[in-house]
Amino acid sequence: MTTEEVGGFATVEQWLQAHGSHWNRTAEEAERLRRLEILCRYCEFAERDPDALVANLLRETPTGRRIWLKRRRAEMARIDAFEGIVADGDPRRGRDAGNVVRSFFIHNGVALTATPFR
Amino acid sequence: MEYKQVIGRRRSIRYFVPYRPVEREKIQAILEAARICSQAVNANWAKAIVVRRDDLSEEDREALKTPTTTAQLDLAPVWIFWYGDPSAPTLGQTTLKGLVDVGALNPSHGWSHAYVDDVVWTQVLTPIMGNQAALLALTGCEAGLAICQAMLMAVDLGLGTGINAFNSEKARAILNPPDHWIPLWVQLVGYPAESPDGGGQRPRQPFESLYFEGRYGVPFERDESVVNELTDAGMLQPPAPLPWRLDEVRALARMFGLPE
User: Fold this and answer.
1) ipTM of the assembly?
2) What's the confidence (pLDDT) of residue B70?
3) What's the pLDDT score for residue B150?
4) Which residue ranges of chain B lie beneath pLDDT 50?
5) Does residue B96 contact residue B126 with C-beta atoms inside 8 Å?
6) Contacts with A, B 201-260, CB within 8 Å
């Protein structure tokens, strides 16, 4: 999957639009590409496309959309593992990449976060 | 700090200085404030277990989180687990007579030991204790009064604070509270890493839509001179978001390695 292809998924469009709207700024092209490259790499790592990643965590119920909590925990662990690989000895670099992925989920309605540095 | 400022400055703080411990005497002061709150039947409905974050294993810390209570738990050095104790009024017959003895409940208002024994205990408290729905509502309300005072004391002491959900089943295993205690909130306490005003006073529904005069449907009209007075006193403060709030949140997120 190329970054261009990743950018065409509905969940990715949703993410970029919501992120820009929330923070009241649109990412420059280089930053947009960086994010897409990281998400692309995560999709390869998880062996799922972006829409499938989000769909895996959500389920429709009579009272509305709900998050699968066990799957969410598993996804959080997978992001942590991804961070470790991307970090290559630099935890900040790994965290930055992990947070791009987390941001993708968050702006698609899946609440998750990282353990803060302290 | 002046009382009105304490009320006005309280925010639900979610970013704490993670490495700065909270002095034990400040924690005690918070609990002291809770203990002397208004309480029905003069019963201590609110109970608390104070935990220092760093005394917990990483596994236990993770277990206590919920989907909405996450990074703030990691950042706050002190966690106060608040519970409601629905058994509190079982001492009501004694605690009410104690209020008669100290001149809080007086014959001028019809109070006596006999009234407590023959009427209040048998006809009011005993039925309430047998009515699960009423007892739960009362327990939540009364414990909430104590928690509110605990939060305001934290603000007065220059601390950041906020109440959050927690995983009560895991807490039961980790903290070992009595089985009948009702889990309410975990109050996080620490020095705020975000500006204490949290980027402005949080939005609320319009005053007149919440409060009525004489009967429901007749709004209690807001007097602007009172609003101005409370604004001058620091109780009513500039509304969120202050212009720099998003930048502050972004900077905090980057400092702590949290997502945006």
Assistant:
1) 0.93
2) 87
3) 98
4) none
5) no
6) 246, 250, 255-260
CB contact under 8 A, B70 and A103: no
Does A1 have pLDDT greater than 90?
no
**Would you call the peptide bond into B241 cis, given omega within 30 degrees of 0 as the criterion?**
yes
Query: Can you read off the two tokens belonging to residue B67?
Result: 């989907």
Its pTM surpasses 0.90: yes
Contact B257 A106 (CB under 8 A): no
Q: Could you read off the pLDDT of A72-94 as tens digits, one per residue?
A: 999 999 999 999 999 999 999 99
Length of chain B: 260
According to the model, what pLDDT value does residue B163 have? 97
**Token output for B234:** 């620091």
Q: Which residue of A has its CA nearest to B19?
A: A118
Which chain B residues touch A112 with a CB distance below 8 Å?
67, 70
Tell me the shortest Cα–Cα distance from B79 to chain A, in angstroms.
17
The letter for the amino acid at B187 is Q
Q: Is B208:B219 a contact under the CB 8 Å cutoff?
A: yes
**Alpha helix locations (H) across chain B?**
3-9, 24-35, 58-64, 71-75, 92-101, 113-115, 126-129, 132-156, 168-175, 207-210, 224-232, 245-256
CB atoms within 10 A of CB A9: 19
Give the three-class secondary structure for B20: coil
Q: What is the pLDDT of residue B235?
A: 98
Q: What is the rounded distance in angstroms from the CA atom of residue B166 to the CA atom of residue B181?
A: 15
Helix (H) or strand (E) holding B164: strand B160-164
Query: Cβ B75–A95 below 8 Å, yes or no?
Result: no
Task: Compute the 3-state secondary structure of chain B and give helix, strand, coil in percent, each to the nearest 5.
Answer: 50, 15, 35
Give the pLDDT confidence of A31-85 residue by residue, as tens digits. Answer: 999 999 999 999 999 999 999 999 999 999 999 889 998 999 999 999 999 999 9
